[in-house]
Design a protein that fits this description.
This protein is an alpha/beta fold and about 140 residues long. The chain has six helices and five strands; from the N terminus they run E-H-E-H-H-E-H-E-H-E-H.
């Protein structure tokens, strides 16, 4: 049985989120979605999400392709692995070949998990949605 893990902010759930979750679910028997806490998103991006953690984890957990939604509290995915042993972690292809992708690969190698990069959806991102909302409010 292969357990997969998809970490993410899942702020303003959009097609890019659905794409990675859908594709990841096809490649494992059990899919865990690690939903970043508000604090961990702030630490990473220096801003809080639009949608609260409590709402984001409920939304992601309700998706039929997700078997379990759990809090993701750190950029160090070895901590996520310790809490929820998984065989493969799925990330967007925008991480591939970057310093953060290489760090993730090294960390996952330490615990015996594989990193699989999924095609990144260029048409929509939470950052794009946030910018569109902000532009609309200042127009």
């Amino acid at each position: 049985m292969i357990t997969g893990y998809v970490p993410g902010g899942f702020d303003m759930l959009h097609i890019g989120h659905l794409n990675i979750l859908r594709e990841a679910a096809k490649r494992c028997d059990r899919l865990i979605a690690g939903v970043a806490t508000d604090e961990s998103l702030y630490a990473q991006k220096n801003r809080y999400p639009v949608i609260s953690f409590d709402e984001r984890i409920q939304i992601v957990g309700a998706l039929r392709m997700v078997d379990l939604a759990v809090p993701d509290t750190s950029q160090d995915k070895r901590l996520a692995w310790q809490a929820n042993h998984f065989d493969v972690i799925f990330k967007g292809s925008d991480w591939q070949g970057t310093a953060k992708g290489e760090r993730l690969e090294a960390e996952m190698a330490e615990v015996g998990a594989e990193v699989v990069y999924m095609p990144y959806t260029l048409s929509t991102s939470s950052t794009m949605l946030r910018e569109a909302i902000t532009a609309g409010l200042t127009a």
